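notes to self, project folder thing:

trying the whole complex as one job this time. last attempt i did each chain seperately and stitching them together was a nightmare. two parts in total, labels are on each line so i dont mix them up again. if this works i'll redo the older ones the same way
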Amino acid sequence: MADEEAELSAPKRAKGSVVRLVAWLVAVLLVVGAGLYFWWQQVPSEDDLREQAGLKGKAQLFVGVADDNPGVALKDPKTGIYTGFDIDIAYLIAADLGFRPNEVRFLTIENEDRNRMRAADEQGHFLTVDLVISTYSITEERERERSVSFSAPYLDTEQSVMTLKGVPAVQDMSDLAGKTVCTITTSTSRNPASDAGAKVVGKRRISECMPGLRNHEFDAVTTDAAILAGYVALEPEVLQHHDIGLAVPEEWGVNTGGNDNLTKLVNLSLYRSHNDPEDKRWEDAYDRNLRGEERASFPQPVANDKQPDVDEVEVRQWPWERLAGTIRPIGATERRRRRTASSGR
Amino acid sequence: MLLLVQNVGPLDLVSSLVITLMWVPPVFVLAGQALGLLYLVSTRDERRRRSSWLAKTAMRTPDWAIAVTVMWAATSWQLRFLPALAMVTAVIVGLTTRLRNPDRPRLIWAVCIGLPVAMALFEYGWLLPAIGDAFSHGEGILVLILLVPPALAPLLTGPIPARFARVATHAPAAAGALLAPFLLVAVFLRAPVLPTVAMELEHGPDQQAEVVLGSVVTVDDTMTTLLDNDGAVRFVPNARVASKVLCPGAEAIPNSAVEVHRWSIERSALQWLLPAKETRRAKDPRCDGRPLVP
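result (full assembly):
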């Protein structure tokens, strides 16, 4: 009787012991695997990122900016001081990188040099800058270049058109068919204008379009609304801003020249500025520079007055440095709003 | 390395060794005991039992030694490995009971199934918010190591098929024993021995300020010897040093933001009990290589 019972339960016991063997294998693999994973997992800390980006021991941060965009980046020819939204954003990012305001050096960069990161100083020597914050719109074509790596966007604006006052309202690009339109040579604004049938004249700088507009050589000037709004706000009785309703957004980003660690640090700075409720630096920069231009540009909005969303950056931080209430999966791939119709711009 | 060993006191090196490697011995002791007991429970053959080094070690280890080792592990292991510790402890207790009381099925059931299940329930109750946090952060491995060991524990407290018993227990034990020295060396080499210091040097009015970052090896009355971050040795005359500051190391910053009742998942009970010396100072520009006054 006892033997029969033992025989009946023997297969059960055998099955039970095979299950146990599998369980043991799983347990050993899990513990050893987890141990190795935690050992190898090396998410860099902010300090590590600064060292890998080459910022340790740097005496000055060189930033390439424009110098002829009122409200965005304007250089006073007498004092040599730069003012504008791009300048304030540069100070914001530099402070988070560990550079105090007088350790930041601004250099004028031409539009066509923004992807090469080369700017000239006052003596005419060319230097490679560390960051380019110069109304540089994020596009797929630009990102493909080796020396261009964009951070998350720091301003959302759109393309618009400026004419002399008294011209009938331009509601769409096609209203400019057959007219002469001035824009910047390397700009994203070129293609929409030429596709609509306008005669496009390219200049190196937007300020070079202004004399032609005043003496009726050009019928209109087109580029990003945030740039044109500055000109319109200076002379609201002479110039007029038109809302052409192009759906494609112009997102301005910081070019870090292929330095991925620096890109992460810039994104961390923008992320904190966006998510920390006590950090009002972006909002103050907007209010100081672009808010006052809204009235003269009406009905064309100058730009989106909220800072664009920034994805969380994977970095090791102390618990008190993490921002409360912003739990998102770390390592989510960075979303970039792709310009679907802009493969050639 | 020679410079370091010659100048850093032996007491500093040994204490650094002890502090960084304190969590390692329980790993080997408990794993070895568990595997040895598993082998003893799985084979009935007396001859094989006697010929196994693992089984002999497991039988000779007294109970109080295991108890002390478990308490040692509980204080020195990080919180995220405590469910695994509970699993190993439950396995050792269950297998020992099975070995010593083969003819008391109710006791065996209570200790081998009942106890691990009760422990699992307690652990899940305590760790559930942390598991949820880890899941929402996307930290898969952390979720697995908190969730799976308590669930596996009831399954591990019995014999495995006798055919595989020798291989399944002796292979991991032998591998562990062979790799142990390399593991110890790797852990030790990663440990920081010296603190990082930033020294700002005196400079003339038109020279640029210079800040040296490195670990101080030795200071005497005329010279400071530094091992800088590139591994080069620098000798700086004390007269040239304008100011010094201690830079916090980044090694202590946790990788994971998950907490269990405000206790970071990457800290051990010992670190939690000791007074916290977390620095919340503003970042000093000298630690970035720039002078204090720009």
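what i see at first glance: Residues 158-249 of chain A form a domain with the D-Maltodextrin-Binding Protein; domain 2 fold (CATH 3.40.190.10).
need to look closer tmrw
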